[in-house]
């Protein structure tokens, strides 16, 4: 079993991160510890604003960084506007909309996606690859849901990518920290980061004991968190042997700088009756546990302070996440909004998807 309490100093933890990129240790360390997620505004990205089934003829209101997005359908086709259709257009119009106040919008994977950025740059090629969701939607209602976090969206994602937190915070659902071996790997490019956690002989997740009928005391797990940085979208894909796959789409839309909306989808179509129906609903319990940690944390990151962040050796993905987000923000501050890497390329192999279970 690995000791999570085995903490390294900031310098030691980061030296691993910095060495792997050659991006200057002390400077990178300084940047990571002066992380102010509330100041990050990502432009030129698709955000999953609503489940497709939540958008009909009657407008619903969503927001990205407090910019209103009204969504409705005209002849069945989703539209996104900064104005309610009955509203007199007295406000100044956003530079991110066309002459009618409309944002670029598209529908895929059971979501209505809005483009926040230069309208001419909106292109389906910048839509994240989500290979376990049916491209044309249609998951049953019990596999989707909505939760909210009173915290800045990057804090929520940073919490997610440090998956070792689950052993403590969600032990009653996903199992405790006891395992024979554990490894954490990080893969990244300029637009995404992927963390792979592999454990052997880990305590069986209680939810699988009860709802998948697993009798053995331990299981081997491979859990992947993949974050599309600009879109604030995460894939959380877990393979449990023995056990069921847990394929969760976990978007963290920054409705405001310190409020996050998570319209999740968990595709348990492949699993048995009980697990198929119960597991997606566990998100409500899990998110309350997460919120108990991240909500008090968020205000502490609103300003740059002399706060001393401690990092363990399991934090490399979280530290990398901070660096990559700041890299994009710095590029955008300098007027560079181009994508250097392809987010829509199929990531099935990278996340180790059991493709036979998800043929679309
Ligand atoms: Fe969590």
Taking pLDDT < 50 over at least 5 consecutive residues as the criterion, the unreliable ranges are 1-24
Please count the helical segments.
10
N- to C-terminal distance: 39 Å
Assign the CATH superfamily of the largest domain. Naphthalene 1,2-dioxygenase Alpha Subunit, Chain A, domain 1
Please state roughly what percent of the residues sit in beta strands, choosing from under 5%, 5-15%, 15-25%, 25-35%, 35-45% or over 45%: 25-35%
CATH class of the largest domain: Alpha Beta
Structural notes for this entry:
The protein is α+β, with helices and mostly antiparallel strands and 360 residues long. It has 2 domains: 7-37 and 147-357, Naphthalene 1,2-dioxygenase Alpha Subunit, Chain A, domain 1; 45-130, Rieske Iron-sulfur Protein. Helices cover 24% and strands 29% of the residues. It has 10 helices and 17 strands. The chain has helices spanning 10-21, 25-33, 153-161, 166-169, 171-174, 206-211, 273-278, 282-297, 316-333, 348-351, and strands at residues 7-8, 45-51, 60-64, 67-74, 77-81, 102-103, 105-108, 111-116, 144-149, 181-188, 192-203, 218-228, 233-241, 246-251, 253-256, 259-266, 311-312. The strands form 4 sheets. Strands 9, 10, 11, 12, 13, 14, 15 and 16 form an 8-stranded antiparallel sheet that branches. α1 crosses α2 (25-33). Mean pLDDT is 90; it is low at 1-24.
């Amino acid at each position: 079993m690995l000791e999570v309490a085995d903490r390294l100093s900031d310098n030691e933890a980061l030296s691993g991160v910095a060495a792997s990129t050659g991006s200057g240790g002390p400077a990178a360390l300084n940047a990571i510890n002066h992380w102010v997620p509330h100041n990050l505004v990502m432009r030129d990205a698709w955000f999953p604003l609503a489940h497709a089934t939540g958008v009909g003829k009657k407008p619903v209101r969503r927001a990205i960084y407090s910019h209103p997005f009204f969504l409705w359908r005209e002849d069945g086709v989703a539209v996104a506007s900064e104005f309610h259709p009955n509203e007199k257009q007295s406000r100044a119009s956003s530079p991110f909309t066309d002459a009618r106040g409309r944002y670029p919008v598209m529908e895929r994977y059971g979501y209505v996606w809005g483009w926040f950025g230069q309208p001419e740059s909106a292109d389906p090629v910048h839509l994240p690859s989500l290979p376990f969701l049916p491209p044309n939607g249609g998951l049953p209602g019990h596999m989707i849901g909505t939760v909210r976090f009173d915290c800045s969206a990057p804090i929520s994602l940073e919490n997610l990518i440090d998956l070792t937190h689950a052993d403590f915070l969600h032990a009653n659902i996903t199992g405790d920290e006891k395992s024979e071996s554990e490894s954490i790997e990080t893969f990244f490019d300029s637009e995404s980061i992927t963390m792979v956690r592999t454990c052997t002989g880990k305590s069986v997740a209680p939810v699988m004991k009860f709802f998948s009928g697993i009798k053995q005391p331990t299981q081997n797990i491979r859990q992947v968190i993949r974050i599309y940085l600009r879109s604030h979208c995460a894939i959380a894909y877990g393979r449990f042997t023995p056990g069921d796959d847990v394929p969760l789409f976990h978007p963290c839309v920054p409705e405001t700088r310190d409020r996050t909306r998570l319209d999740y989808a968990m595709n348990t179509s492949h699993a048995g009756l009980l697990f198929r129906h119960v597991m997606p609903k566990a998100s409500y319990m899990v998110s309350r546990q997460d919120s108990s940690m991240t909500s008090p944390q968020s205000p502490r990151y609103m300003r740059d302070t002399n706060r001393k962040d401690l990092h363990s050796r399991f934090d490399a993905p979280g530290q990398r996440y901070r660096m990559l987000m700041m890299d994009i923000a710095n590029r955008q501050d300098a007027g560079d909004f181009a994508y250097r890497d392809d987010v829509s390329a199929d990531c099935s192999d990278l996340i180790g998807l059991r493709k036979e279970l998800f043929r679309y």
